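Q: Convert this sequence to structure tokens.
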Amino acid sequence: MFEYAGGAPALHALAETHYGRCVSDPLLVQVFGSEPHPDHVVRLADWLGEVLGGPDRYTRLHGGHSALLRRHAGRGITEQQRQRFVEIFFESADEVGLPANPVFRTRLREYLDWGTGIAVDVSQQASVGDSHEPVPIWGWGPAGPPPS
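A:
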């Protein structure tokens, strides 16, 4: 899915556009703050790349799955904020030209719904311990990749 999405350049553009929308959205500014964090775009792009089957940059450079869980702990993310995050993600995907293929978009949405659900759960906890789970790799599922 990483290559199909356009690789690291496409995911960086997606992360940059998405994060820009999150820090200016009235609902999400409560989670992200109004001042952009200088490393957020790179971390998000690296996470997405690894999740979609690309290089393990998030694990090597940013601490892996445990680090991601710790970054969400205590944020008190609501279901409404989770839904808005996903909505803005797909608006951003359209804006930067990620493939519109229905199979790709369905798998991407399934990952986002699953992953943001975990973020909401973790965000209700003041802190989380270390996870020995690797970064999840999200693939095409049983249907396989869409035809070229």
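Residues 2-123 form a domain with the Globin-like fold (CATH 1.10.490.10).
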